[in-house]
Amino acid sequence: MTMWGSKNDHPEDGDQAAEEDHSGRPSSRRSHERQEPDERTRLIERPRAPNSDGYLDPDDPAVSPYNLWSVRFLRYFTVLFLMISFIWWVLLLVSIFISPPKMHSRGSGFFDFAFTCLTIGNLLVAVIFFVAPAKALRITTSIISVLLLVDVILILAVPRLRLEEGWVGIASVVWAFFIAVWCILTDRVVAWGKREEEERLTGRPETRRTVKEWLAVMVATIFATIFIIITLLMTLTLGVRSRDATLGMFGERILVDGDKYAVHLACVGNVSYTHGSKDATVILEAGETPSEYDFEHWAYNAYQNGTIARYCYWDRPGYAWSDNAPSPHSSGMSADALSEALAKAGEEGPWILVSAGTGSIVSRIFSSRHLKQVTGIMLIDPMHEDLLHRIGSPGRGFMLWAYGIISPLGLERLAGALFKGRSREDRVYGRNAYQGGKFIKAQLQENLVADSLSKNEVVSARNIQSSDTPLVIVSSGIHCRTDSEWERKQKDLTTLTENLISWDVVNKAPHQVWRTYDGRSVMEKRLGSLVKRAGKTKTPI
Question: Where is this region: Disordered (predicted)?
Answer without folding.
Answer: 1-57
